[in-house]
Amino acid sequence: MLFMTRFMMLFIAIGLVLVGCSQDQTNGKNADQAMNTEITPSTGQNVVQDSPEYAAKNEGELSDQDFETAYEMCVKALSDYYKAVWNGSDIELDTYIENDHLKQYTQQKIQSQYDVHIKHNLTDDLVQDIEIGAWEVEYMDDVDGGYLYLHLPVQINMTVGGYGEVTEFLVRNVNGKLVIVDWYTGAKDSYDFMVRGENLTIDDPDIWNDSEWVKKLDSMTDEF
Predict the structure, then answer these.
(1) Are the C-beta atoms of 148 and 171 separated by less than 8 Å?
(2) CB under 8 Å, gap of 24 or more: what pairs does 7-15 form?
(3) Residue 171 dihedral angles phi and psi, to the nearest 5°
(4) What is the maximum alpha-carbon separation in the chain?
(5) How far is CA 36 from CA 20, 22, 40, 119, in A?
(6) How far is the C-alpha of 35 from the C-alpha of 106, rounded, in Å?
(7) Short-list 119, 181, 123, CA closest to 150
(8) H or E element: which one contains 116?
(9) Chain-centroid distance, C-alpha 85
(10) CB-based burial, 85-108: b 16+ in 10 Å, e otherwise
(11) N or C: lower Cβ tally within 10 Å for the chain?
(12) 154: which strand partners?
């Protein structure tokens, strides 16, 4: 009888150990499942990334040390621009432009061209990337601290084929940040070509501060 009692106690003890192990394994699986479904900042869908800021080498002036940064900014602006025009992607103009008139004009330019592509069922042909050819940059001196002139030939690579055109930029140092103060693409039948005119000399970094000129240009954009 004593033997049977000890046997039953041993059997119950073994049973309790097995149940405990089973619960530990179940809890472990649940913990693994929780870890696998957790969304981290690097994989979440609603991650907001800070826009890049293109800082000048020296806060109060421009120099040839800003050439590369200005180039990188203009290339990124062009890439965002072509994807907005063809793919309908968002473009954060505040990253590149401070002047409200130029921002408004650029937004109108993008919307007008995107609408044309929709009208003619061209939105299936998307921009994949862009390539920059032999680019030029030059420092121009003036009473406001100077500006950079950039000449960028660009090849736009589409889903099928592509095309090329040249864009000119003027860049200033505004409070230590490089910003685009003018931007012109003179390809035949381009928006700038039709609205602003052809064969322009892009050499006035303050043109978008000229209220009379902007007012005249606004009357032109209403036609497109």
Answers:
(1) yes
(2) none
(3) -130, 135
(4) 112
(5) 24, 21, 10, 45
(6) 46
(7) 181
(8) helix 100-119
(9) 13
(10) bbbebebebebbbbbebbbbbbeb
(11) N
(12) 132, 165
Per-residue pLDDT of the chain (224 residues), as tens digits, is 434 444 344 444 444 444 444 444 444 433 333 333 222 222 222 323 345 789 999 988 999 999 999 999 999 999 999 999 999 999 999 999 999 999 999 999 999 999 999 998 887 889 999 999 999 999 999 999 999 999 999 999 999 999 999 999 999 999 999 999 999 998 888 999 999 998 899 999 999 999 999 999 988 776 66
Q: Helix 100-119 vs helix 211-221: angle between axes, to the nearest 10 degrees?
A: 10
Beta-carbon neighbour count of residue 58 at 10 Å? 12
Q: How far, in Å, CA of 167 to CA of 153, rounded?
A: 6
DSSP-derived secondary structure letter, 61: B
Which amino acid appears at position 3 of this protein? Answer: F
**Which residues are CB-neighbours of 132 under 8 A, at least 6 positions away?**
75, 152, 153, 154, 155
Rg of the chain over all Cα atoms, to the nearest angstrom: 30
How far is it, in rounded angstroms, from Cα 151 to Cα 166?
Answer: 7
- Start-to-end C-alpha separation, the chain: 103
From the list 175, 202, 178, 221, the residue with the least C-alpha distance to 74 is 178
